[in-house]
């Protein structure tokens, strides 16, 4: 048997203010080295239901078992879409784990200590049909502090320049399902993250009975600790594919 056929497909779901290149700093390379099929999902960042439907369309194209891996807001999307029977495990790398009726933003404000709201700026947008909304981006002078304090300055400059705005409505949209209630989950918990308070990470992992790995990392775990992300994905694969 081809060893690659015996391994689950790893679907990587980036979060707000970023794109799928987030996973090219070592995560994709490590997974490919270890023989895992990999799909980097291009998250629309328009709304939980919208983004989860798009993710489900990708899952429909994959044969065999899947492990969903998220960063940041991507945690809301994999929670919503992860009820697909192909999905065997969920891995949250610096991601919120909202429950049913909760939004990503609820996970930022449930406990004190998060600085997301004070570090972002809002800008209106209008679509061709006349509907409008509000986009969210991190202020350039707050970006390194909020997102990437331990990332090289040259990389931070690229991250700032390639920010993809997320719709404010997406951050405020509650989930209607949460796959972590019925499927095994792993949480890679950054201890130096100004976006999500550590108390929130602990609360979420406790209620989900997640396996927890703690790191002295900023919010940008896939960039600062790609080898750890790859290792934990391997743990999840071995535990769920026995």
From TrEMBL:
Gene3D superfamilies: alpha/beta hydrolase
Source taxon at top rank: Bacteria
Domain AB hydrolase-1: 10-232
Name of the molecule in the record: AB hydrolase-1 domain-containing protein
Family matches, as Pfam families: Abhydrolase_6
UniProt signal peptide: none
InterPro entries linked to this entry: AB_hydrolase_1, AB_hydrolase_fold, Sec-Metab_Biosynth_Hydrolase
